[in-house]
Amino acid sequence: MKGKKLVTVSGILCMALIVALLPVISACGPTAERTLMIGMTTPSSGPAAEKGSPMGHGNLDCIKYVNEELGGVAGYQVEVLWLDNGYDASKAVTIIKRFMDEDCLFFTTASSGMMSAIMEIANRSDFPGFACFSSPVLTHPPEHIYGQTPDYGDDWAAFARYYLENIWEGPGKPKMALHLLSNATGYGARDAARAIAEEIGIEIVATEEHATTTSSEIESLTRIRKANPDILYISSTPAPTAIIIKNAVELGMYPGMEIACGHASFTKALVDLAGADLVEGVYGVYPTVSWGDDVPGMAKMTEYCEKHHPDDYGNMDYIIAWAQSLIAAEILRLAVQNADIDDLTPQVVEEQGFWKLRNFDVDGLHGPVTYSPGDNRLSKSVRVFQIQNGKLVPITGWVEAPLIRYEDFDWYDK
Questions:
Q1: What pLDDT score does 413 carry?
Q2: Nearest partner of 280 among 308, 248, 305, judged by Cα
Q3: 10 Å Cβ neighbour count for 102?
Q4: Stretch 53-74: mean pLDDT
């Protein structure tokens, strides 16, 4: 009997101790156990893998840094549901549905092409997301999709103005030909040219399209050659851009006319694929700093890149993806700061995270990030580069990209 009584008393004391500890367990539990889940998708295989692979690495290396060195976001670990879309629109549609089904708070894509394939679903579901590389169609009109950096139309406008002010020496208007990837990547440059080329003083004399899988553009370039352009502007990804430049050299068009590229193709992969000698002197636009630039985030990013993915060093696509993950972490931080952790939904994160972004400097890796009502571009600055001795060398400082209100034109999105 005495033994039974002792057991009973011990049990009561144990229960009392558990009850006493419950508030402590409850208070510690969410931070220790709950995660903040986001979806990320990159074309790490398929026809754009030369871009998507280093971008996926940059995304996930940065999240590793945030979780392991910064302690996560407000004490919560960031959990990433990362999926390879293969630069395939049908896969991207399946992926966006999975992100929503698995309760991701928001999502990111690398490319405008994949975002344009899924933006209707995301907008209809009030599910926010942002793309590293953006096209006007993603953010005009502004809904729930955001562009991390200036879009492909902004690229064209920034370079066109630079060309007129610093390169063009002839009388009258310079003649420009466009060679465009047959998706949002190419159409962004097309729409910008359509909107403001006449206003700023450039004549568009030819427009050709190509596929991501093209193996020759001799025929299209032969048509362009007949128009005798002063400059060829290419808005595409690295592999087809390399083919177009090689073909232009074969046809004797380059050197002779100038060639410039939008930021989707203007990276180390272009030099590697085409060969440094063939792309010498080619111009391009890109929205980040270069490797080795003296900015606060360079040392840590370089450390992770060299440790985990050394082959990506020198590729600016790694930089923009690393910066994308820093922005994702800042959105989460703002949302947790401005809303109760238990109330977080995609809609709350958009209002209390995305919409609260104010001059976030992304460790200096690209222009500051700010949400402005009516302008879903988060960063608004680019630089003009030129390939010199196989290196992508900046030849301007940061150039602000003014907002072009495409939705005000009656031809837009028709």
A1: 76
A2: 248
A3: 11
A4: 98
Please report whether residue 194 resides in a domain: yes
Do 357 and 302 sit in the same domain of this protein?
yes
Residue of 239, 191, 188 whose CA lies nearest to 211: 239
pTM for this one? Answer: 0.86
Amino acid at 367: G
> Residue 246: left (phi > 0), alpha (psi -120 to 50), or beta?
alpha
Q: Could you tell me if 162 and 279 lie in one domain?
A: yes
Q: 127 with 186, same domain?
A: no
Residue 24 domain flag? no
135 CB contacts (<8 Å, ≥6 apart)?
A: 112, 116, 147, 151, 152, 153, 184, 185, 187, 188
269: containing domain: 153-286+401-408
Same domain, 41 and 144: yes
Q: What CATH number did the domain enclosing 51 receive?
A: 3.40.50.2300
What lies within 8 Å, CB to CB, of 174 at 6+ separation is: 163, 164, 168, 201, 202, 203, 230, 231
Q: How many domains does the chain have?
A: 2
146 in the same domain as 295: yes
Q: Are strands 399-400 and 381-388 parallel, antiparallel or unpaired?
A: antiparallel
Q: CA-to-CA distance for 34 and 216, rounded, in angstroms?
A: 52
Q: Answer yes or no: do 220 and 197 share one domain.
A: yes
Please check the confidence at residue 22 and state whether its pLDDT lies above 50. Answer: no
Q: What confidence tens digit (pLDDT) does each residue in 100-112 have?
A: 999 999 999 999 9
Query: How confident is the model at residue 3, as a pLDDT?
Result: 47
Report yes or no on 391 lying in a domain. no
Same domain, 281 and 323: no
Tell me the percentage of the chain whose pLDDT exceeds 90: 91
230 with 125, same domain?
no
